[in-house]
Specification:
The protein is an alpha/beta fold and about 190 residues long. It is about 25% helix and about 30% strand. Strands 1-4-3-2 form a four-stranded mixed sheet, with helices on one face. Helix 1 packs antiparallel against helix 3. The model is unreliable at about 175-185 (pLDDT under 50).
Length: about 190
């Protein structure tokens, strides 16, 4: 018998809603080496499944539109999805290999692997179920103080405007221009 009680008093466990959870479980197993912890079926659909990647767990279920539970559109253009919804981050041993496995299994590259100023090599993809993933590995361990120093030196983000109207105009113009220095992007 599998014990579904959490081993911790408090933990964050993302819950992904997908169209075709069985295919999603197979995708996450092939790409990340995820291990299924347990699964509940409900009317021939996955009602809840917990997967483990390393020491982290996440859950997923099939969409149940009749109950208002809907998956994100898997075919939404990336520019329409940018900035919305969660992004899942996973530390991996080999970013390039994970990105290759994601692409080979139906994922869409969003960012090629690159070494970043904050000491990691990272890249991103969208899985076939509409969820965006950032994968990274540490290539240069640095302190928080050094990370802050580098961020300040790069002047990554302009200061926000002071009035509500200016903030709205700023958001629109900021999101429609290439605003990150080379190698600094978000998925």
């Amino acid at each position: 018998m599998t014990d579904t009680a959490p081993q911790h008093r408090s933990m964050l466990q993302p819950l992904l809603v997908v169209h075709n959870a069985v295919a999603a479980i197979e995708f996450y197993t092939r790409v990340f080496g995820a291990v299924e912890q347990w699964r509940l079926m409900h009317y021939h659909r996955v009602g809840h499944c917990v997967l483990r990647i390393g020491e982290s767990e996440f859950a997923l279920l099939d969409e149940f539109p009749e109950a208002g539970i809907k998956a994100p559109p898997a075919d939404e253009p990336e520019d329409a999805a940018r900035g919305r919804g969660p992004r899942l981050m996973v530390q991996v041993e080999d970013v390039d290999a994970v990105l290759q496995r994601a692409a080979a299994n139906g994922g869409t590259h969003l960012r090629q692997a690159e070494d970043q100023w904050w000491g990691v090599r990272s890249g991103g993809f969208r899985d076939p179920f509409g969820h965006r993933w950032s994968v990274y590995s540490v290539v240069e361990p640095i302190s928080i103080e050094e990370m802050q120093r580098r961020a300040d030196e790069l002047d990554l983000y302009p200061p926000p405007p002071s009035t509500p109207d200016a903030r709205q105009e700023y958001q629109v113009s900021y999101m429609n221009t290439p605003h990150h220095p080379k190698g600094v992007r978000s998925v």
